[in-house]
Amino acid sequence: MPEEYGNYVSGEWTESESAETFDVLNPANTNEVVARFQQSSTADTEVAIKAAVDAQKKWANTPGPERGSVLQDASQILAERKTETTELLVREEGKTRSEAAGEVQRAIDIFAYYSQKSMDLGGVVKSPSGREKELYTKSEPLGTVGIITPWNYPIAIPAWKLAPALAAGNTVVAKPASAAPNMTRVLFECLDEAGLPNGVANYVTGPGSEVGVPLTEHEDIDGVSFTGSTAVGTTVAQTASESLKRVQCEMGGKNPTVVMPSADIDEAVEILGVGAFGTTGQSCTAASRAIVHEQVFDEFVEAMVEYAESVKLGSGLTDPDMGPHVSQSELESTLEYVEIGKEEGATLETGGEQLTDGEYADGYYVHPAVFSDVDNDMRIAQEEIFGPVLSVIRADGFKHALELANDVEYGLSASIVTQDLTEADEFLNRIETGVAKVNEKTTGLELHVPFGGYKQSSTNTYREQGDAGLDFFTSTKTIYRNH
After folding, report:
1. Domain with CATH 3.40.309.10 in the chain
2. pLDDT more than 70, % of the chain
3. What is the pLDDT of residue 379?
4. Which of 225, 364, 408, 444 meets the CB 3.0–4.6 Å disulfide criterion with 331?
5. Domain 255-438 carries which CATH code?
């Protein structure tokens, strides 16, 4: 029998009032049920919201360093559990062992980072216009917030929402994606062991209609932080905004890497290969478009095909180059886009086929695909695929490449591979993305700087991570004090 886990509400692990559960399968071996979780109802969500509201004032009045101490202890507890958590992440989401270990370490570091930032929360003193007066600002917690997180980074993203929210003095109700709820559960176990007061953070699993929607609509929720698809994020933002809740949504991407003639082609292929096929392409910052100057186009395509065909697939526990998709629906979506690309007239140079024999028989595997002869108006060049599919697009010069890079509705991450400093500088200045890189892959983020997108990649309200990560979870009060 698989282990069954409850919701975490008011410091207790509880069953759903629905008495229903759902199973999470190992995407590398669907015969294995990794764990069983609560199929929660709206009533469960409302109980969690009440617990958070009841705990909010006391937590807000807890000194920042004391709140930070809980986060620091949770970070240390997670560090002690890193090996087991890494393996669980692999079994639940499908990442390779190396990818999973890096993500768990990221969560450890995020909790440690915000444990220190909690001591810096305060305000700014300004000079008043009159004598015997004081003028200053004070940072206060937003209140009770809902966080809704995706399955593709199932411990890092919950960590980078939970940690600043708690550091700032908010209480939280968290809804993880049903495809990978285990990692958020582990974070809550660490917080519980670290002594987080009852009700300050609550964890409820289940469908968006029963858990996510109440978090966006409930009158006692003061803010909603969401990461996921643009379609769902747009609905979340519109619903939350109706009651004037503060809302933050980070959403999809269609991220380009521009390759110029001065680039080292082997280096460019490595940057694109890791950026496109790492984490099975299941990253909002994954490179899905290679925009390549015509002078090096054929050379690049040949080398990129060789790279893709060398990618070793397998269960993440064996630490291959690439693991399976997270679910049958994600696999089917990728396979459908491969067919769309062929129907649109792009040339499938390699890959795109499902692997079903031997060790792959019970998993969601597809070989990484490389398309050439892609026009930028094709669906495979415009729509987020969320799988290991790379479209190679020909550009006749730098300006053309930049135009192609910007000619999508998304604006999350982009990079250029070049040895020309003028090209690099112009690219950084003119690319319409929230993250811009030179001679680096589009994936990979530092935790102490802001992260977010432009256009349909974000609500363009508040950034995540770093100091900016605290901005969403705090309100500023301006104080005039006349002696």
Report:
1. 255-438
2. 100
3. 98
4. 364
5. 3.40.309.10
Q: Three-state secondary structure along the chain?
A: CCCECCEEECCEEECCCCCCEEEEEECCEEEEEEEEEECCCHHHHHHHHHHHHHHHHHHHCCCHHHHHHHHHHHHHHHHHCHHHHHHHHHHHHCCCHHHHHHHHHHHHHHHHHHHHHCCCCCCCEECCCCCCEEEEEEEEECCEEEEECCCCCCCHHHHHHHHHHHHCCCEEEEECCCCCCHHHHHHHHHHHHCCCCCCCEEECCCCHHHHHHHHHHCCCCCEEEEECCHHHHHHHHHHHHHCCCEEEEECCCCEEEEECCCCCHHHHHHHHHHHHHHHHHCCCCCEEEEEEECCCHHHHHHHHHHHHHHCCECCHHHCCCECCCCCHHHHHHHHHHHHHHHHHCCEEEECCCEECCHHHCCCCEECCEEEECCCCCCHHHHCCCCCCEEEEEEECCHHHHHHHHHCCCEECEEEEECCCHHHHHHHHHHCCCCEEEECCCCCCCCCCCCECCEECCECCCCCECCCHHHHCCEEEEEEEEEC
Residue span(s) of the chain under CATH 3.40.605.10 come to 7-251+458-482
Report pLDDT for 229.
94
The tokens for 345 are: 């007239």
Class of 7-251+458-482 in CATH = alpha beta
* Catalytic entry in 204, 237, 284, 447: 284
pTM for the model: 0.96
pLDDT tens digits, residue range 77-92? 999 999 999 999 999 9
Q: Are 275 and 286 in contact (CB under 8 A)?
A: yes
Identify whether 284 is a catalytic site residue: yes
